[in-house]
């Protein structure tokens, strides 16, 4: 870019608009998150000053983070996948039954989780990309299929007693230089669960995928303009298919991360997770129309969403409806911002 | 008579006749209905038994599976009306109807709860009318909110309605302070169950009224033409003097009123409300009804009769599954399979593929005939 900076004025203009399109949304999200967190630290103080609070947010939302990353990929190609939440629930239930009733071991349960996610991704991707169905309808069917299958497998809550798995659940990564001093004056280092590590690794991997690989750039091209991507020689169908497969895989992994956090299987697990994942992606600056989005934005989207939930509960509004209403309000706000930005972009084109 | 006989006799006309039937939009829902009826006839003929029995309150009422299907499909049929219009005009579906029903029901209960049970019939009727009008206004406002997001901010309908989908049930709980309200007045239950002396469930009448109203509206106004025009090409309809934004907003408001009627019936059925469960998954069924009616989910032309018929088919399917002791939460898996089959059948790619196969076969036949002639 620096080479082009002294080129024609029109080039400069182009560069500036591209910056506003993709990065403005990301900047808004980051700023909102930082302001929110600082306000929480200054005004609420209830634990927000401790680093552990931040890691608790991560611990609770590791699976949401993985799901949102998959969702972002699909949304960049212009699709949507609303089955991820129920796939999570199905994965938890299948793994729980495998570990408890079939005396399976941890490795095979991981393979089951990946298999379920992959199966959903492949089937939905095939229906969306090659048979050209509306992604919303296909994944809605997937959602209901997963929901039904979960209850068919077992309608009761299953708690895990498998020792190897419980050991894995309890494994925590401590961060030696971050932490707080507790009431007795002992320094307690901050720690995070193993699921968070998995989630962060996936964030980094997908970030690299989107940023530096051919496939990642193809995602943006397909989402930005289907036809011109096709003319550029990109296999549009395959790209869409792969996006759904990756999203399915993310759902499988996210499901297992949720399983690690919850240590049980229940049909009530991850209710509404798909809506949270979509909301986080949107808040993170992914445009619904496709072509614009960023994994880092999604990370901040998840953080903002979960921070606001924590703030609402620590404000004393403990009635369960308040979190839903705030999340909806936040989603509405960001959708409006997106809509305005898109409208401005269209005007610039004309 | 002879004319039709000769028509039928000539094979080509039969083919044309069949293709005319197959390509009629009512074919898919009717075929599905016939399939279900046949299945039930073979599995258990007593499925269709209808009896006139005294209820627990001593009134003579009709009971039987068919009656319960027609009764329970009422909400779905009413929703299908609004959903078809929204689908046609905006090319997307409203997934917040279940949450909006919870809100509407909550509003009704809040109003009716305030009045004591010993008011006269006339006064009670007034209260009911007032509560219904209020809930219709509230639901229409929420519909307008969705519609405004879709029409003026150009957000995809399913994502715009996601907001209310997330918040709706919470708002419903908030309206009544999360209390579990139940109405003791038996007169309130008339609207969702039976009016003494009339053996047919009341929701059936309410649905009939709604259907007549929408039929008249479609017959005497330009609503059908306009919403189809907007759905097919909104910018060219704008050039023709239709305001696409107003039409989209209008369809969402109509859906809101439909939702209010559904919410009213729903709370009247049980005289109480459970915020997280009421009308659960009904949005899926409503979308499925529209799809089953053979309407294009991407907007444009629609057939209201087919949609409403689709709603009854779905309720038939649900009741059949219940009869075979499928648990209520597992039903969604079976329905998902039905959806997938439906969309595969209606997909343009698959249709094109089938046509290609047909053409290929015909071409092969023709070439083989040519080959024979050469020999």
Question: CATH first level of the largest domain in chain B: which class?
Answer: Mainly Alpha
So, CATH architecture of the largest domain in chain B? Orthogonal Bundle
The N- and C-terminal alpha carbons of chain A lie at a distance of 25 Å
Q: How many domains is the backbone of chain B divided into?
A: 2
* Strands ordered across the widest β-sheet of chain B: 1-2
The CATH architecture of chain A can be given as: Orthogonal Bundle
Distance N to C terminus of chain B = 45 Å
Average pLDDT of chain B: 83
> What amount of the residues of chain A lies in strands?
5-15%
* Stretches with pLDDT under 50, minimum 5 residues of chain A: 1-17
Tell me what you see in this structure.
The complex is a heterodimer of chains A (350) and B (375). With 350 residues, chain A is mainly alpha-helical. Chain A has 13 helices and four strands. Chain A has a two-stranded antiparallel sheet with strand order 1-4. In chain B, helix 5 crosses helix 13, helix 6 packs parallel to helix 8 and helix 10 packs across helix 12. Chain B folds into two domains: 261 residues, ABC transporter involved in vitamin B12 uptake, BtuC (Orthogonal Bundle); 47 residues. Chain B is built from 16 helices and two strands. At the A-B interface, helix 5, helix 11 and helix 13 of A face helix 8, helix 13, helix 15 and helix 16 of B.
Question: What's a quick, concise take on this entry?
Answer:
Chain A is mainly alpha-helical and 350 residues long.
């Amino acid at each position: 870019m620096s080479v082009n900076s002294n080129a024609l004025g029109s080039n400069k203009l182009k560069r500036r608009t591209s910056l506003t399109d993709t990065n403005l949304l990301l900047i808004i999200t980051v700023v909102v998150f930082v302001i929110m967190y600082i306000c929480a630290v200054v005004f609420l103080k209830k634990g927000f000053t401790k680093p552990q609070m931040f890691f608790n947010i991560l611990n609770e939302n590791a699976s949401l983070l993985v799901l949102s990353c998959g969702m972002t990929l699909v949304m960049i190609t212009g699709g949507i996948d609303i089955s991820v939440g129920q796939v999570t629930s199905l994965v938890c239930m299948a793994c729980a039954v495998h570990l408890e009733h079939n005396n399976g071991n941890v490795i095979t349960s991981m393979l089951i989780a990946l298999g379920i996610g992959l199966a959903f991704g492949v089937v939905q991707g095939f229906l969306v990309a090659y048979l050209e169905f509306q992604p919303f309808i296909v994944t809605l069917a997937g959602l209901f299929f997963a929901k039904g299958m979960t209850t068919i497998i077992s309608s009761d809550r299953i708690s895990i007693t498998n020792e190897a798995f419980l050991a894995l659940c309890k494994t925590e990564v401590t961060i030696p230089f971050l932490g707080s001093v507790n009431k007795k004056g002992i320094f307690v280092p901050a720690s995070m669960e193993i699921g968070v590590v998995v989630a962060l690794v996936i964030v980094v991997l997908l970030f690299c995928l989107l940023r530096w690989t051919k496939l990642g750039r193809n995602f943006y091209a397909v989402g930005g303009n289907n036809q011109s991507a096709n003319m550029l020689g990109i296999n549009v169908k395959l790209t869409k298919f792969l996006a759904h497969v990756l999203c399915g895989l993310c759902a499988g992994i996210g499901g297992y991360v949720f399983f690690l956090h919850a240590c049980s299987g229940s049909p009530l697990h991850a209710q509404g997770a798909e809506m949270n994942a979509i909301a986080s992606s949107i808040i993170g600056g992914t445009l619904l129309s496709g072509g614009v989005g960023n994994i880092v934005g999604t990370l901040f989207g998840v953080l903002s969403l979960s921070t606001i939930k924590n703030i609402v509960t620590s404000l004393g509004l403990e009635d369960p409806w308040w979190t839903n209403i705030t999340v909806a309000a936040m989603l509405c706000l960001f959708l409006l911002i997106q809509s305005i930005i898109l409208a401005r972009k269209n005007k610039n084109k004309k | 008579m002879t004319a039709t006989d000769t028509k039928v006799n000539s094979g080509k006309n039969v083919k044309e006749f069949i293709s005319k039937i197959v390509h009629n939009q009512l074919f898919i829902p009717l075929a599905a209905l016939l399939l279900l009826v046949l299945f039930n006839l073979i599995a258990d003929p007593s499925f269709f038994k209808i009896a006139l029995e005294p209820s627990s309150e001593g009134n003579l009422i009709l009971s039987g599976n068919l009656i319960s299907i027609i009764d329970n499909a009422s909400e779905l049929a009413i929703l299908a009306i609004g959903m078809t219009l929204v689908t046609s005009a905006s090319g997307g579906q409203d997934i917040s109807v279940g949450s909006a029903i919870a809100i509407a029901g909550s509003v009704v209960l809040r109003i009716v709860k305030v009045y004591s049970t010993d008011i006269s019939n006339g006064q009670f009727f007034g209260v009911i009318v007032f509560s219904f009008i209020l809930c219709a206004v509230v639901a229409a406002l929420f519909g307008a909110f969705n519609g405004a997001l879709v029409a003026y901010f150009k957000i995809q309908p399913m994502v715009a309605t996601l907001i209310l989908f997330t918040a709706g049930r919470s708002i419903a709980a908030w309206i009544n302070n999360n209390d579990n309200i139940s109405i003791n007045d038996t007169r309130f239950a008339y609207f969702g169950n039976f009016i003494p002396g009339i053996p047919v469930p009341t929701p059936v009448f309410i649905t009939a009224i709604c259907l007549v109203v929408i039929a008249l509206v479609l017959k005497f106004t330009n609503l059908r033409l306009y919403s189809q025009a907007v759905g097919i090409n909104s910018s060219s309809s704008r050039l023709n003097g239709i305001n696409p934004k107003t039409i989209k907003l209008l369809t969402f408001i109509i859906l809101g009123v439909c939702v209010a009627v559904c919410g009213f019936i729903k709370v009247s059925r049980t005289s109480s409300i459970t915020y997280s469960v009421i009308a659960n998954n009904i949005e899926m069924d409503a979308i499925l009804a529209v799809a089953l009616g053979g309407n294009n989910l991407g907007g444009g032309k629609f057939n209201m009769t087919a949609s409403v018929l689709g709603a009854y088919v779905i309720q038939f399917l649900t009741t059949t599954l219940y009869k075979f002791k499928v648990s209520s939460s597992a039903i969604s898996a079976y329905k998902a399979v039905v959806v997938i089959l439906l969309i595969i059948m209606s997909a343009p790619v698959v249709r094109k593929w089938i046509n290609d196969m047909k053409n290929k076969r015909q071409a092969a036949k023709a070439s083989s005939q040519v080959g024979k002639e050469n020999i």
